[in-house]
């Protein structure tokens, strides 16, 4: 670690930033030293992303001062920040899947030969050497899209470093990675630390933060709660400061064990036998029972997203059968699935909702065929939507404002609300609480439980163990497209779940 | 380092008024264009601002307008139909082909009773629309390419039927609607008004219309909401083809002849009318109201340029520039909306 009197690599003092009168950051101090991995935790909306966007030059309009190596800077754009040696690896990778590894590493500054053409041999060699220095052994000529997601991420990291970044911001880098991939990433990060770079590691995965970082800073409600050396603190300590007390149930789902209450004698509302779809999933058999929440857990890319879509008729399994209420049939399309009483909420709200349309149209779209034969009836649509908005506590309470002006958690509730007017027999939820703050998560948990208690069969597909543990009565674990384990009527903890996957 | 950031930050925050203006940009800009053009031509040419000329303009935009109604549905779904003019031409020729021609017309045609000729023609244009729909939704050909092929197929049908000749006679009903008038109002204008009204009612008040907007607004979300997206897209392709077919039949009566390449300029005009009016090229925004304004802009422009002393070859260039300006506004309006929604 650098000596105490050398100026820190990055220093922010008294940073405040507000959006339209709402304070996102209040008088925040933050220091990153060379050769340090600095973990950043906090619930969604706590201010982590805003701070990172200020550092990365996305928000140029803020109060307070920022200094690199002791000299004050103020970025006007992301390009300024990049030029000053700040690089960011986003959760959504910005690689070009159809280009080779080398082209991706050199994206934007390919070496050229004398004729002004791309110098392919130099690019291939350079990329190979660059990746090798990070301990990554991969053919630079390979199409990047065909590599595992973990490798793609490392290659993106390599690109950021290649552009000269001394400060690297990683946003949720482990969310899509399997444990071995996480270990490889950590190995790379340790090398970067040793080379004197400063790394900011933002994550919801506290275990990951605690195992890799040197220092942890905790945010809550736009304020920095505490900065502490990672040594000597544990998860409970962090959660306590993140949440600020009063959320015992969710805290339990974070750390403790929960007992599952499956209902083996309840009627089967949806069953799959030997479902197979190309490389996505194979030989999946499962039963969804009325009044039971079936959790399907697996790491990103294990085929669970495709499986969920197959249950809703969005994609078609190449073999295997689906039976709905005991009757075997093939779902022609999503309309067919809806008619048969199956509903689906995908993991991406963008893919589910109409951002420019008012809330009531977002709610009514799924039931238009029931409430209107030929002509639409906006008054009834508004009344239905208003009922859901009130009962689900969606804010703001108006049904005429565009959906896009709602917060993420409220949007997710709208996505659920659209299926509640005429409750389906089976509700398939993909990542129902991803990217939500604790309060909104809690609301979703309550809604799902209420639906289950009314006799709905619910399927919850997620890559987050907490989500599955807090919702499910029975859990299937998926691994590389297959169901490898079932947990029913027993006590289970996060470690056992992770172990199974 | 001094920073004016905080001050400019509050100054840059859009007022409620500004927000409304940004949101309504796609509706305001075409309307403002129309007003400017009207004032300009009224001042520049004394013969422009007369009741007779207003009637002229309406008649001139009628055939384009009927095509544009169908095209509005397609563009609202974020698709495109490049075959509208070819289908109009083919249907117009077909209805003449099925009508008894004068003996000097050298076409081996198949005369049917008037109602049968009209019915067969309507079925034929709907069938071409079904082929478009099938190609786009079942096979998965992008509509741009599928309808490009259909454009050629339509031209081929025209060529085969008239073999370079010109037919004149069409069924009486078509002749009346295409070139007659009642109480001084051309039937053609009345038909246009009926199509515009019907299109507006369907888009605004029916479930199908709502689905059209939702599919155009976010196709994936519509599918995840259980909307039969392929059915909706297929339907708009057929609606577009039928509108084109009707326009083609009436156009033939209006021009007084049925021949190849008669409707070639109508493709661009119809697309221009929809887009100039402010219906989003990305789907989900706009409607018949926009198309009406777009039609008027186009009609006033085409007609007004005839009233002032201007090189007739320059007219073509001016039309192109106006269309380009409309496209710029269309895309810009989309961006403004997205920024407003995000902020």
TrEMBL record, chain A:
Gene3D superfamilies: P-loop containing nucleotide triphosphate hydrolases. SMART domains: AAA. One of its GO terms (molecular function) is ATP binding. Keywords: ATP-binding, Cell membrane, Membrane, Nucleotide-binding, Repeat, Sugar transport, Translocase, Transport. It holds the Pfam family ABC_tran. The keyword Electron transport does not apply. Residues 10-246, 255-500 form the ABC transporter domain. Belongs to the ABC transporter superfamily. PANTHER family: CARBOHYDRATE TRANSPORT ATP-BINDING PROTEIN MG119-RELATED, D-ALLOSE IMPORT ATP-BINDING PROTEIN ALSA-RELATED. This is Sugar ABC transporter ATP-binding protein. It comes from Alsobacter ponti. The lineage of its organism: Bacteria, Pseudomonadati, Pseudomonadota, Alphaproteobacteria, Hyphomicrobiales.
């Amino acid at each position: 670690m650098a000596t105490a009197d050398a100026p820190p690599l990055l220093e922010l003092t008294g940073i405040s930033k507000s959006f339209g009168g709402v304070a996102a950051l209040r008088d925040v101090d933050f220091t990153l030293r060379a050769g340090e991995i600095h973990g950043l935790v906090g619930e969604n909306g706590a201010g982590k992303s805003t701070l990172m966007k200020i550092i990365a030059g996305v928000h140029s309009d803020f109060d307070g001062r920022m200094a690199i190596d002791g000299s004050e800077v103020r970025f006007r754009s992301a390009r300024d920040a990049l030029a000053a040696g700040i690089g960011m690896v986003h959760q959504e990778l910005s690689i070009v899947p159809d280009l080779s590894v080398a082209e991706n590493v050199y994206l934007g500054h390919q070496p050229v030969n004398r004729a002004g053409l791309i110098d392919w041999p130099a690019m291939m060699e350079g990329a190979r050497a660059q990746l090798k220095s990070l301990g990554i052994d991969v053919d630079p000529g390979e199409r990047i899209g065909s590599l595992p997601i973990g490798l793609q991420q490392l290659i993106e990291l390599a690109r950021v470093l290649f552009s000269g970044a001394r400060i690297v911001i990683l946003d949720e880098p482990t969310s899509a990675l399997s444990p071995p991939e996480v270990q490889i990433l950590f190995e790379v990060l340790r090398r970067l630390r040793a080379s004197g770079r400063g790394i900011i590691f933002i994550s919801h995965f506290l275990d990951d933060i605690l195992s890799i970082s040197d220092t942890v800073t905790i945010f809550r409600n736009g304020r920095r709660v505490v900065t502490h050396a990672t040594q000597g603190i544990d998860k409970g300590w962090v959660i306590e400061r993140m949440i600020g007390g009063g959320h015992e149930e969710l805290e339990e789902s974070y750390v403790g064990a929960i007992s599952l209450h499956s209902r083996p004698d309840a009627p089967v509302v949806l069953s799959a036998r030997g479902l197979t779809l190309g490389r996505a999933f194979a030989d999946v058999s499962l039963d969804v029972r009325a009044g039971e929440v079936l959790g399907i857990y697996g790491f990103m890319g294990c085929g669970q997203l495709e499986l969920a879509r197959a249950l809703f008729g969005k994609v078609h399994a190449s073999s295997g059968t689906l039976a709905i209420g005991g009757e075997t049939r093939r779902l022609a399309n999503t309309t067919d699935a809806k008619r048969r009483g199956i509903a689906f909420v995908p993991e991406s709200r963008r893919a589910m909702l109409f951002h420019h349309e008012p809330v009531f149209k977002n709610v009514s779209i799924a039931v238009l065929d029931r409430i209107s034969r030929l002509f639409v009836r906006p008054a009834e649509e508004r009344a239905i939507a208003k009922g859901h908005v009130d009962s689900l506590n969606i804010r703001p309470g108006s049904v005429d404002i565009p959906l896009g002006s709602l917060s993420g958690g409220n949007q997710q509730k709208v996505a659920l609300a659209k299926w509640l007017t005429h409750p389906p027999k089976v509700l398939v939820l993909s990542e129902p609480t991803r990217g939500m703050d604790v309060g909104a998560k809690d609301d979703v948990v309550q809604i799902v439980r209420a639906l289950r208690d009314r006799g709905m069969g619910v399927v919850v597909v997620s890559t987050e163990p907490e989500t599955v543990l807090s919702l499910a009565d029975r859990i299937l674990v998926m691994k590389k497209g297959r169901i490898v384990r079932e947990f029913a009527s027993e006590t289970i903890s996060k470690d056992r779940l992770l172990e199974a996957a | 380092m001094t920073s004016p950031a905080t001050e400019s930050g509050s100054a840059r925050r859009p007022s409620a008024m500004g927000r409304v203006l940004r949101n309504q940009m796609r509706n305001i800009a075409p309307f403002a264009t129309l007003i400017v053009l009207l004032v300009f031509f009224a001042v520049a040419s004394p013969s422009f601002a007369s009741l007779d000329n207003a009637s002229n303009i309406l008649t001139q935009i009628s055939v384009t307008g009927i095509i544009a109604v169908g095209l509005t549905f397609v563009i609202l779904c974020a698709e495109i139909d490049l075959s509208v003019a070819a289908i109009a031409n083919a249907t117009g020729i077909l209805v003449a082909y099925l009508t008894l021609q004068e003996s000097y017309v050298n076409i081996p045609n198949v005369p049917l009773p008037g109602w049968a000729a009209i019915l067969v023609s309507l079925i034929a244009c709907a069938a071409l629309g079904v082929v478009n729909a099938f190609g786009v939704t079942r096979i998965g050909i992008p509509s741009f390419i599928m309808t490009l092929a259909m454009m050629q197929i339509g031209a081929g049908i025209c060529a085969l039927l008239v073999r370079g000749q010109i037919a004149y006679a069409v069924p009486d009903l078509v002749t009346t609607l295409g070139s007659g008038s009642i109480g001084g109002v051309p039937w053609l204008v009345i038909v246009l008004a009926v199509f515009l009204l019907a299109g507006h009612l369907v888009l605004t008040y029916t479930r199908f219309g709502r689905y059209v907007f939702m599919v155009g607004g976010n196709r994936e979300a519509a599918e995840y909401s259980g909307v039969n997206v392929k059915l909706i897209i297929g339907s708009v392709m057929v609606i577009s083809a039928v509108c084109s077919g009707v326009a083609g039949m009436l156009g033939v009566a209006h021009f007084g002849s049925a021949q190849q390449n008669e409707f070639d300029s109508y493709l661009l005009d119809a697309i221009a009318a929809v887009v100039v009016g402010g219906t989003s090229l990305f789907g989900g925004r706009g409607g018949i109201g926009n198309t009406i304004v777009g039609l008027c802009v186009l009609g006033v422009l085409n007609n007004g340029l005839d009233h002032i002393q201007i090189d007739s070859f320059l007219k073509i260039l001016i039309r192109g520039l106006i269309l380009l300006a409309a496209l710029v506004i269309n895309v810009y309006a989309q961006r403004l909306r997205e920024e407003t929604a995000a902020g």
